[in-house]
Amino acid sequence: MTAYTATVTVRLKRGVLDPEAETTRRALERLGFEIEGLRSADRFEVDLEADDAAAAETRATEMAERLLANPTIHDYDVEVVEA
Amino acid sequence: MEVAAVTVAVIRFGGSNCDRDARRALEHLGVDAEIVWHEAGLPEDTTGVVVPGGFSYGDYLRAGAMAARSPVMEEVRAAAADGTPVLGVCNGAQIGCESGLTPGAFTTNRSARFRCERVHLRVENADTPWTAAYDDGEVIELPIAHGEGRFEIDDDRLRRLREEDRVLFRYCDADGEVTAAANPNGSTDDVAGVLGETDTVAVLMPHPERAALPDIGPTDGQGVLRAFE
């Protein structure tokens, strides 16, 4: 078994309104920043032991499917590195 | 002594705060109701389930996400599949969608602000247990209190919901007109409440249990709760 860190990034699907990001964008503009757009995402870093990177990715993907993301509104991606 | 034929389980999670209101409203209608701690599981004689409002698990991750994956919700899904009436209100509606009992998701209000006020709702389908006390097109008034009440659903599922007449209530103005201004949270298609796969399962963001006792105000919410009679 090898120690891995799986990073799961969960973001709203394109086209789903993100009021918190919109509020943050307006606040940045009030501070004088000129920006073209802003998206927010949740990032989860999961430490786990697995036989190989593929097995670690499979488990992290299942975590995203079953809890970390809501498929109605979210897309997600998973990246695995050796810890 | 008359034995109550109906016992509705009002499920309490850590952070539920409308459980007592729900029980009181049901008892006012003569429906026996018990508050059930989620870890205790559903009582054997459960003939109905209310998943009440509140902030279960502090809304961690997403509103309703944690409670939806608690063991008691597996029992609730099984009961719903057997035809037991299940109602999710506010946080209970978020839990219902997160657990797959009902389609779509309730997420952050368009304004990104918590909204606590009375809203008008148009009854879209009076041919369900939850709306049989009303007429099609009737306008009722219920309180809302939520920060994450914006109904989101993809186009295909929305089309199916509409085709199957599963939208229970839409936000509207006092005259029953569905307008953007009357939609308090940016919900897709102005949806305030929907049915699950069967008409015995329903969720809605507004609070019928907070509009059920004549001593404290309007009672438009009684009709929804009469599904448990």
**Which shape of chain B, going by the Cα principal axes?**
globular
CATH superfamily of chain A: Phosphoribosylformylglycinamidine synthase subunit PurS
- Spans of chain B with pLDDT under 50 lasting ≥5 residues? none
- CATH class of chain A reads Alpha Beta
Distance between the termini of chain B: 19 Å
Name the helix and strand elements of chain B from N-terminus to C-terminus, one letter apiece.
Answer: EHEEHHEHEEEEHEEEH
Largest sheet of chain B: 9 strands, mixed
Annotated CATH topology of chain B: Rossmann fold
Summed up, the helix count of chain B is: 6
Largest sheet: number of strands, sense, barrel closure of chain A = 3 strands, antiparallel
Classify the secondary structure makeup of chain B into a structural class.
alpha/beta
Poorly predicted sequence stretches spanning 5 or more consecutive residues of chain A: none
Explain what you see.
The complex is a heterodimer of chains A (83) and B (229). Helices cover 34% and strands 36% of the residues of chain A. Chain A is α+β, with helices and mostly antiparallel strands. Chain A has one domain (2-82): Phosphoribosylformylglycinamidine synthase subunit PurS (Mth169, Chain: A, 2-Layer Sandwich), CATH 3.30.1280. In chain A, strands 2-1-3 form a 3-stranded antiparallel β-sheet, with helices on one face. The radius of gyration of chain A is 16 Å and the shape is elongated. The N and C termini of chain A lie close together (12 Å). The model of chain A has no long low-confidence stretch (mean pLDDT 97). With 229 residues, chain B is an alpha/beta fold. Chain B has one domain: Rossmann fold (3-Layer(aba) Sandwich). In chain B, 20% of the residues lie in helices and 25% in strands. Chain B is built from 6 helices and 11 strands. In chain B, the strands form 2 sheets. In chain B, strands 2-1-3-4-11-10-9-6-7 form a 9-stranded mixed β-sheet, with helices on both faces. In chain B, β10 and β11 (201-204) form a beta hairpin. The mean pLDDT of chain B is 96. The A-B interface holds A 16-20, 22-23, 66-68, 70, 72-73 and B 61-62, 65, 69, 97-98, 103-105, 107-112, 150, 152-154, 186.
